[in-house]
Amino acid sequence: MIIAIDGPAGSGKSTVAREVAKRLRLRYLDTGAMYRTIALLALEAGLVPDRIPEAEAIAAKARIKLEPQENDLTRVFVDDREVSTEIRGGLVSQNVSAVSADPGVRRVLTALQRAQADQGDLVLEGRDMGTVVVPGADLKVYLTASVAERARRRQLQLAEKGITQPLDELIAEITRRDAYDSGRELAPLCRAEDAIEIDTTSLTIQEVIDAVCAEALRRAPQVARDDHAPESVISLKRRRWPLSRMARSPLDTLLYRVAYSFIPPVWKFLFRMKIYGAENIPPAGAVVLASNHRSNLDPFFLGVACPRQIHFMAKAELWKVATLGRIITAMGAFPIARGAADREAVRRAIAVLDQGAMLGLFPEGHRHRDGTLGPISPGVTLFSLKDGVTTVPAVLEGTERVIRDRLPRLPSVRVSFGAPLEMPNSDLPRATRAEIVGMRLEEALRHATSQQGDR
Ligand code: DC
C-alpha cells in the first residue's frame, strides 16, 4: 500500500506520516529531509542564491541515506556524514524553498522517491506526493491547519529544544514559506483532487492518526496492523466534542473528562459565557495557565472555557472537607499551603509540567473580588521558566458576581486567553528572568482586562 501525505509546514505531516507507517507496518519517507539535504549541500558549495541550477548535479551525485526513527525526526546521512541537525537549522530552513523550486533538483529527487515507492508499502510525506510523485497512491491525505496554530506548534517544538522565538516572527516565516511553496511554478503545494483533506487545527495528533489509519484500512483491509491499530473505521468528520477533551497527558483524569463532558453546555448557557482566545492554548505539551482570581468557582469557568484538562494548584483549606478534597484530587488538582514554602506543592506542579500537562495557577494568590488585579507572587513565575513550558494568561470577568450576599446569581461571564508570554533571554540570571516574566504576566492580565472593557 502507498499512502501520500501532503500539506504545509506545521500541519502535523511528519508525526502523522511516521505514526501511520508504524501502525500499519509500512516504510516511511520524509521527502522534505531530502530537499533540505540538497539545500545544505548547495549552501556549502556556495550555489545559493545565484547558481542554484548547479545543485542538480550535486543532487544526482549525493548518496543520501535516510534512517527513520521510532519517535523522532528521520536521521539523515550524506555519505557517512550525519546532517540531521544541520538540515533543520535556520539557514537551511530559510533557503530550502528556493533550492526545492529548481526543476533539476526536483527531477532527481522525484526519481529517487518513485524508486522507493516502486518497492511498495510506503508512506511518503511532502508537498507534491499526491499530485506528482505518486499520483496513483492508494490513499492521499492533505493536512492543513491555521497559520496561527502552525506557528504555535513550531514555537512549542523550538521551546522543547530551549529556543525561544516570538510568535509574530514564526507567523511571518510560515506565511512566507507557504506563499513560496504554493506559488512556485513546478509541483506547487496543492491538494490532489482525490485527496482527503483534514484540518488539524482543533484535532489532537492521535485523532488525525486514527482517522488516516482507519481510512487506509477501509481501502486496503489486508494491510498488516499492530495492536494499536483502530478496530473499526472511524469517521473522518471533525469530532470536536467530547473527543477534544480526551486525556492528553498520563496525568489527566477520568473524572475530569466525564465532568467536563456535561458541565460546559450548561454553564455556557446559564452564565451566557463568552470565551475569547481559546486558540492561544497549545493543543499539547506543558502549559502554565495563569489566571486572575475572583471567585472560588473560577476553576470551573476556566475548565469550561479550556479545551484541555487543567491541573489546578488550589488552596490547602479546600482539602479540610474530606469529601471535597477527594473530589478535587480526582479532578487532578493538588493542594498548596499558602504563606509557607510548600515543597510538596512545587514538586507536584513540576511533575504536571514534566508530563506535558497543563498547570492552572492563580498568581495573585488570593481572590480579588473587587475586579482589580493583585500583586503577582514571584514564586509562580518560576514554573514558567522551565524549559519547554508555554505560559498562557487568562482573564476572568464577572465571576466575582456569581455569589453575592451568600446567594448564587447568574451574571454573564467572560473568559479571555491571551497570547503565550514571550520568554526572556535564557542568558539572563534566573532571578532577572523571573522578574521579567512576572512583569509580562501582570501586563498581559491587565491588558486583557482593559480590552474586555472595550468589547
Ligand atoms: O517538510 P519540510 O519542512 O521538511 O520541507 C522542507 C522544504 O522542502 C519545504 O519548504 C518545501 C520543500 N519540499 C518540496 O518542495 N517538496 C517536497 N516533496 C517536500 C518538501
Tell me about this structure:
The structure is a single chain. With about 450 residues, the protein is an alpha/beta fold. The chain folds into 2 domains: about 1-225, Rossmann fold, CATH 3.40.50; about 230-455, 3-Layer(aba) Sandwich (Glycerol-3-phosphate (1)-acyltransferase), CATH 3.40.1130. The protein has 15 helices and 17 strands. The chain has helices at about 15-25, 30-45, 55-60, 90-100, 105-120, 130-135, 145-160, 165-185, 205-220, 255-270, 300-305, 320-330, 345-355, 380-385, 430-455, and strands spanning about 1-5, 25-30, 65, 75-80, 80, 120-125, 140-145, 195-200, 275, 285-290, 310-315, 335, 360, 390-395, 405, 405-410, 415. The strands form 4 sheets. A 7-stranded mixed beta sheet has the order 9-17-14-10-13-11-12, with helices on both faces. A 5-stranded parallel beta sheet has the order 2-6-1-7-8, sandwiched between helices. About 40% of the residues are buried. The structure holds 2'-deoxycytidine-5'-monophosphate. 2'-deoxycytidine-5'-monophosphate (DC) binds near residues 35, 96 and 177.
Quick summary of this structure?
This protein is α/β, with parallel strands linked by helices. It has helices at 13-24, 31-44, 55-61, 90-100, 103-118, 129-133, 147-160, 167-183, 205-219, 254-270, 298-305, 322-330, 343-354, 378-384, 430-454, and strands at 2-6, 27-30, 64-67, 75-78, 81-82, 122-126, 139-144, 196-199, 274-276, 287-291, 310-315, 334-336, 358-361, 390-397, 403-404, 407-408, 414-417.
